[in-house]
Write a structure and sequence with these properties.
The protein is of the alpha+beta class and 352 residues long. The chain contains twelve helices and eleven strands. The strands form four sheets. It has a five-stranded mixed beta sheet with strand order 1-4-5-3-2, sandwiched between helices. A two-stranded antiparallel sheet has the order 6-9. The chain has a two-stranded antiparallel ribbon with strand order 7-8. Helix 7 packs antiparallel against helix 10. The longest helix has 30 residues. It comes from Quercus lobata. GO terms for molecular function: ATP binding; protein serine/threonine kinase activity. InterPro entries: Kinase-like_dom_sf (IPR011009), Prot_kinase_dom (IPR000719), Ser-Thr/Tyr_kinase_cat_dom (IPR001245), WAK-like (IPR045274). One of its GO terms (biological process) is cell surface receptor signaling pathway.
Length: 352
């Protein structure tokens, strides 16, 4: 086959992909955006190859830093198949709808010339939350563990954006992927929620919605998803409770290393089993206690643990709403931060 013939076929392939992906994107934007203008820039495949230096030096799997017109962006090429193409368009539309919220990673645009769209987002200078929580001895030189006050602030801000998803639209939207790896941090450590690939709205007149069955074996899922293949807003509450436990313990839900448990146990199962028998200090990430403590710290840790246990109740009806979770985290965050030196006289302590 001649070079010209190959180039012609490649051009035709990109044109077909552009038309197919573009029509899907336009259709979903019309259905979901209610006549709101949502600017989404179109990039060519060549532009993004140049911007990322041909996709060298990934930030992590499927994430690359790119430079366009003097600005840095994050670029996410998606696996080339129809299912992922549909997921990518769903992510682009949902994140565009949510782009006014300060705790969402804002989409800049996309490339529609490939079988699955390539997504382009604003950059998040401080990287991924997981790198500041899952800190081992091997990675401590690159990433300092996040202090407790920052973890609590991240939790409250992510709770707020999930509450917004559940209440701000005509029908509740379930995020379905509230995980540490899907939260990025800007230069001020403000969290940015990403990964709206699986997000789905509950249809009119329904109280739950069926989801893509490929999710069932990906993570430790809410019990109702395993039992029925359907989710509600309370399923996001369960995922958020899992996130709270990871922020508290510094452990991965699916790969527990520090706590004494068998390799087949989830973090949720372990904490529910041992919560009554264990001291809070045995559960909490040791890095949280590495700095100067204060009299409210243990109160906050216990309150967050109690909240996480409630969020991960097996019965969805016993879980709080994300609005109530956000309010509770605000209350916990407002605990007085009074530091008292143990050798201070009692009278001085009373004044403090």
């Amino acid at each position: 086959m001649s070079k010209k013939s190959e180039e012609r076929k490649e051009k035709e392939r990109r044109e077909r992909a552009f038309i197919e992906n573009g029509s899907k994107l336009l259709e979903k934007l019309i259905v979901t955006c209610n006549d709101k203008c949502i600017p989404i820039r179109s990039f060519s495949a060549q532009e993004l190859q140049l911007a990322t230096n041909n996709y060298k030096n990934p930030l992590r799997k499927l994430w690359y830093k790119g430079y366009l017109e003097g600005r840095s962006f994050f670029v996410k090429p998606i696996p080339d198949n129809k299912i992922w193409a549909d997921f990518a368009i769903n992510d682009l539309v949902m994140s565009a709808q949510m782009s006014s919220h300060k705790n969402v990673l804002k989409p800049v645009g996309c490339c529609l010339e490939t079988q699955s769209p390539i997504l382009v987002y604003e950059s998040a200078m401080n990287g991924f939350l997981m790198d500041r929580i899952y800190v081992s001895h091997d990675t401590r030189q690159q990433h300092q563990p996040m202090e407790w006050s920052s973890r609590l602030k991240v939790a409250r801000q992510i709770a707020h954006v999930i509450s917004y998803l559940h209440t701000a639209f005509s029908r509740p939207v379930i995020h379905m992927a509230i995980h540490m790896r899907n939260i990025l941090l800007d230069e001020h450590d403000v969290p940015k929620l990403d990964h709206f690939f699986y997000s789905v709205s509950i249809p009119e007149g329904e109280i739950d919605v069926e989801v893509y069955d490929g999710l069932w074996n990906v993570y430790f899922n809410p019990p109702e998803l395993e039992a029925t293949g359907k989710v509600t807003e309370k399923s996001d509450v369960y995922y958020f409770g899992e996130l709270l436990l990871e922020l508290l313990t510094g452990e991965k839900s699916y790969d527990i290393t520090r706590l004494a448990t068998d390799k087949y146990s989830s973090l949720i199962a372990y904490i529910h089993t041992c919560a009554q028998a264990c001291c809070i200090n045995e559960i909490v990430d040791p890095a949280i206690f590495s700095g100067k403590g204060d009299v409210s710290l243990e109160q906050q840790l216990q309150a967050v643990l109690d909240l996480a246990l409630t969020c991960t109740e097996e019965d969805p009806q016993r879980r709080p709403t994300m609005v109530d979770v956000t309010k509770e985290l605000r209350r916990i965050e407002s605990y007085a931060r009074v530091q008292v030196h143990p050798t201070q006289p009692q009278a001085e302590k009373a004044i403090l």
